[in-house]
Amino acid sequence: MRILIVGIGASGGTIATRAVSAGMPIWLATRTEESAGVLRSTGLRVSGIGGTAIAGAVQVAAIQEYREADKFDLILLATKAHDALEMAPFLASLLVPGGTLLPIQNGSVSEILTDRLGRVVLGGLSNLGATMAKPGIYEQRNAGHLLIGELAGGLGDRVAKIARALSGAIETRVTPNLRGAVWAKLLLNCSVTTIGAIAAQTMRQYMTSRAGQEVFRRMYDEALSVALASGTQPERMFVEPIPPGWRGTSIPGGDYDLWIERIMASYGDLKPSMLQDFERGRRTEIDFINGYVAELGSQIGIPVAMNAATTEMAHLIEQGQIQPHPARLDDLLLASPR
After folding, report:
1. Which of 47, 13, 11, 45 has the alpha carbon at shortest distance from 28?
2. What pTM was computed for the model?
3. Which of 87, 162, 193, 324 has the CA that lies 20 to 30 A from 122?
4. Quick one: DSSP state of residue 238?
5. In CATH, what number is assigned to the domain containing residue 70?
């Protein structure tokens, strides 16, 4: 299987390094020839969990250079969400008949691309924790895996074949409810990640405040209500996606507190990637996370005031009009009164 990996950042670079070092037939694509030249000269190296892997010689070129090249059986799309939507139609033209485009971004990317391009898209998401020290140098932070499946549901030969092909580089699991898995992660991205980014705090820090607790509860409840109303049953990750006793809203109490503690055991001390985007002046993926929930909720008649206000605030931070700060959580409560 000829595989092209597009986007050689933290996740894509880690997967690419392990794949090339394992002898898999892998080609890499960057946005510019300058970036490709850097990787050709330095090679790739990943350390951390999973051990060290080195790919001294890599087949890498700017994405447009593949226009006249041999076609691919699988294209793994590991760019930022907005880049994925921009590049996907061109990437589909680089596939052999029956080939597959596999996006692994957070949020709604797989669903949006399936609506636009059809069955050529296979749904995917990444639970791989990795960082990029500089182009070509990566650190794997967790055991991690890819989760793939048909967004229409069920399992088929295509899913099993691609899982086998990728397993030489990274553990690849399959699910008959990929849409539910996407939403399970989206629920936590909407709440844990986005709140931490806007407050410039970890979850463990912002959950010590009344405002943090209230924003989390309302953000999560809205997103879960949208998921269920859209006909999706979120998958269980490390906690049940539906809080104990939930009836449209979370019910405070001992069981709910234990549920929150289980989330904090995994996420409580992590610095949100969106906060890193704010700090570096980069565009975030807010429109594919809280923005997607707000848009879909509005379409199907589910109240989404907190997710909508959060999306607007994230854009103001991107534009430099305000800064991430714990006080932003009080601002959110004022901007979205019940």
Report:
1. 13
2. 0.87
3. 193
4. S
5. 3.40.50.720
Domain that holds residue 187: 180-335
Q: What whole-number distance in Å separates Cα of residue 37 and Cα of residue 28?
A: 12
Cα–Cα distance, 275 to 202 (Å, whole number): 10
pLDDT tens for the chain, 338 residues: list them. 999 999 999 999 999 999 999 999 999 999 999 999 999 999 999 999 999 999 999 999 999 999 999 999 999 999 999 999 999 999 999 999 999 999 999 888 998 999 999 999 999 999 888 889 899 999 998 888 999 999 888 888 999 999 999 999 999 999 999 999 999 999 999 999 999 999 999 999 999 999 999 999 999 999 999 999 999 999 988 789 999 999 999 999 999 999 999 999 988 888 888 998 999 898 999 999 999 999 999 999 999 999 999 999 999 999 999 999 999 999 999 998 87
Number of domains in the chain: 2
258 and 316 both lie in a single domain: yes
Does residue 20 come out as left (phi exceeding 0), alpha (psi in the -120 to 50 range) or beta? alpha
SS3 180: helix
* Structure-block tokens of residue 13: 């670079």
| Residue 231, C-beta contacts closer than 8 angstroms, at least 6 positions apart | none
Domain boundary among 122, 155, 176: 176
Tell me which residue of 3, 280, 327 sits closest to 165, measured CA to CA: 3
Question: By C-alpha distance, which of 240, 248, 194, 184 is closest to 216?
Answer: 194
Per-residue CA distances from 105 to 72, 112, 119, 197 (Å): 20, 11, 18, 18
Both 57 and 203 in one domain: the answer is: no
